[in-house]
């Protein structure tokens, strides 16, 4: 009995790979935060656009802002562009293609936004609180002393900034957890190399000095201030000084904890270093740059000592940023 092999020919078949699953629909909370963040940019962008087009909305008679000038025009254009970047940032944090954005293209603007908005998030509600308790002079009294902007402008603008900061934080944290979550999982781990420890110690020293100066100003001290700035002391300005002191201390503490390592969960020192470094670096640079140009209120600018303090604040943020970067590199290599 013979067995005959039977050969069958099958028509070629095409095996297409299964289509990639569609990204999940954004959660309702994220959709709300997206809408809130975008809406919060509208008042500031509208005001800046109006001023650039020649409108004087919100600017009272006698204000030095009515004199205009190239510096003021450039400042308005730059700050309008900065706030417009919030719209792009929101899109990156909420769209699927945002996960493919190069890390530096996202972290740099987020770091900057964190730095500029954090002192506002701390200071503006604090100012509202002291006014509600009857300790502050209020925006109306400030406007009466020296016409600059209508009081409602400050309320609208800083309320928008506060809402922006909270909404962006609510969008960035889940984005960062999804993309870089392993970087802050678990404990801090081993101590960073000795040179990083030296940088962290320098950051902590600078933070202590900066915090001491800001607290000195908060309680009515005048060291390093021009005569005009010293006379302009108010409870509201004291609240802002306290906010900057808190940010400086956060930067110094975060740098030391990251460099020391140990069993502490990594997320808390990372948060302190990120927020503290961003705030001290961004506001130190912002105030230093602003002090070098003509003052928008027409008054006397910061003294050379104050400029040196702003530079020290910026240096503290830079040193903490270096420690933070070294820690993240070590986590990636590990």
Walkthrough of the structure:
It is a single chain. Helices cover 69% and strands 2% of the residues. By secondary structure, the chain is mainly α. The chain folds into two domains: 156 residues, no CATH class; 149 residues. Helix 4 crosses helix 9, helix 7 runs antiparallel to helix 11 and helix 9 packs across helix 10.
CA gyration radius, whole angstroms: 26 Å
What structural class results from the helix and strand content? mainly alpha
The structural domain count equals 2
Number of helices: 11
Task: Using the alpha-carbon principal axes, give the shape.
Answer: globular
Major sheet summary line: 2 strands, antiparallel
Mean pLDDT: 85
User: What is the straight-line distance between the termini?
Assistant: 68 Å
The total beta strand count reads 2
Q: How much β-strand is present in the residues? A: under 5%
Low-confidence segments: 1-25
Strand order of the largest sheet: 1-2
The oligomeric status of these chains comes to single chain
Helicity range? 55-70%
Following the backbone from N to C, one meets helices and strands in this order, namely HHHHHHEHHHEHH
List descriptors:
11 helices, two-stranded antiparallel sheet, 2 strands, disordered N terminus, 334 residues, mainly alpha
């Amino acid at each position: 009995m013979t067995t005959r092999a039977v050969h069958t020919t099958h028509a070629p078949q095409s095996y297409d790979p299964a289509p990639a699953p569609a990204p999940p629909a954004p959660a309702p909370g994220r959709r709300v935060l997206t809408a809130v963040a975008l809406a919060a940019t509208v008042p500031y962008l509208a005001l800046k656009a109006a001023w650039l087009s020649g409108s004087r909305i919100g600017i009272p008679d006698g204000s030095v802002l009515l004199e205009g000038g190239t510096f003021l025009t450039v400042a308005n254009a730059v700050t309008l562009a900065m706030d417009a970047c919030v719209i792009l940032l929101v899109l990156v944090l909420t769209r699927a293609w945002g996960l493919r954005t190069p890390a530096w293209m996202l972290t740099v603007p987020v770091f900057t936004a964190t730095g500029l908005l954090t002192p506002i998030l701390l200071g503006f509600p604090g100012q509202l609180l002291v006014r509600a308790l009857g300790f502050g002079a209020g925006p109306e009294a400030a406007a009466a002393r020296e016409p600059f902007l209508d009081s409602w402008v400050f309320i609208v603008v800083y309320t928008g900034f506060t809402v922006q900061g909270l909404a962006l934080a609510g969008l960035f944290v889940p984005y960062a957890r999804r993309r870089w979550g392993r970087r802050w999982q678990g404990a801090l781990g081993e101590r960073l190399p000795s040179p990083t420890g030296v940088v962290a110690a320098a950051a902590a020293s600078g933070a202590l000095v900066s915090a001491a100066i800001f607290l000195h100003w908060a309680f009515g001290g005048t060291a390093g201030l021009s005569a005009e700035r010293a006379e302009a002391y108010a409870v509201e300005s004291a609240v802002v000084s306290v906010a900057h002191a808190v940010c400086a201390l956060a930067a110094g503490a975060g740098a030391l904890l990251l460099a020391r390592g140990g069993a502490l969960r990594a997320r808390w020192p990372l948060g302190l270093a990120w927020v503290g470094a961003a705030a001290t670096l961004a506001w130190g640079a912002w105030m230093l740059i602003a002090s070098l140009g003509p003052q928008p209120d027409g008054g006397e600018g910061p003294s050379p000592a104050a400029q040196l303090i702003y530079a020290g604040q910026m240096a503290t943020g830079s040193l903490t940023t270096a420690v933070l970067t070294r820690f993240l590199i070590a986590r990636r290599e590990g």
